[in-house]
Amino acid sequence: xxxxxxxxxxxxxxxxxxxxxxxxxxxxxxxxxxxxxxxxxxxxxxxxxxxxxxxxxxxxxxxxxxxxxxxxxxxxxxxxxxxxxxxxxxxxxxxxxxxxxxxxxxxxxxxxxxxxxxxxxxxxxxxxxxxxxxxxxxxxxxxxxxxxxxxxxxxxxxxxxxxxxxxxxxxxxxxxxxxxxxxxxxxxxxxxxxxxxxxxxxxxxxxxxxxxxxxxxxxxxxxxxxxxxxxxxxxxxxxxxxxxxxxxxxxxxxxxxxxxxxxxxxxxxxxxxxxxxxxxxxxxxxxxxxxxxxxxxxxxxxxxxxxxxxxxxxxxxxxxxxxxxxxxxxxxxxxxxxxxxx
Length: 342
Ligand code: UD1
Description:
- By secondary structure, this protein is α/β, with parallel strands linked by helices.
- The protein folds into 2 domains: 4-185 and 237-268, Rossmann fold; 204-235 and 271-337, UDP-galactose 4-epimerase, domain 1 (Alpha-Beta Complex).
- 40% of the residues lie in helices and 17% in strands.
- It contains 11 helices and 13 strands.
- Helix 1 (13-24) packs across helix 8, helix 3 runs parallel beside helix 5 and helix 5 (96-116) runs parallel beside helix 6.
- The model has no long low-confidence stretch (mean pLDDT 97).
- The structure holds uridine-diphosphate-N-acetylglucosamine.
- Residues 89, 127, 129, 149-150, 153, 181, 183, 202-204, 207, 219-222, 233, 235, 276, 299, 301-302 line the site of uridine-diphosphate-N-acetylglucosamine (UD1).
């Protein structure tokens, strides 16, 4: 029988790509979203890509405990992937209460409903932000976490702990996988789904594509005096489709009872550091467009260099990032042109 996966925040950037991969791998997916930070564009794209008109879409807020219990009762949920959260690092500094309330409450409700059902497989979308500025790179899952540099980052660390404690307390009735994403970028090769930032983008790649297409005048490169080869920060930019596929491996591992521990953690990255300048240059080269940019002061809270050691995910889950940075940057550009109607 087909297994059912609930995807909270499933209409957003990562959620929509994960929904596509799950459906293509043979899962039934229930998409739930409150549309606080996205519209129907990506959900419509998911339907087109998968050729499925019948994907259940539930408009709901995961901070509403009753609604969360209801969805767990309405569908035979074998696993839940929790994306529903606020994610703007800068905004979280000014609105900590909003971030803690939303990101913690929604996850607590998921866990409460999972417990009430007698258990469930829970996949939490965590972030490399929990490593802070690491003393040694690349980071493995054993690299110690560091105090978060923003309330957003702290919500990721706290939710990791809450899941771990819940797995322990329920003696594994609730099982957990924490995926720590590095920097997800790009779009689906169909150009039917991708990132749709509201207002001025905070993240690098949407700012690059919007500058290239003329929506923004100039990209500021935050800091060229870092102790790296070209002076700009180093990141592990991971293709969104590669990242989405990692969720299929993780969910299957949970559902098929292949976990080695009841709560596991995996880095989801490429293992390849790329500097901000290298990324801009690669984007210009592969797409044949100019990205007007200038150097600007460092951005508060940025770390110098972080990239993943993805060996554990490679070996244990059998997952590996496959797309090149060039392919990914071409997909980001195709998506930007698609939404601009060009
Ligand atoms: C941030 C979050 C991470 C989150 C990710 C989501 C932290 C410390 N980081 O990662 O948790 O998962 O967003 O995508 O919480 N840059 C510019 N100009 C710009 C924008 C960015 O130079 O206009 C530079 C930044 O200084 C940084 C790099 O590009 O060095 C990547 O920035 P960004 O895309 O915002 O991601 P992170 O800050 O690495």
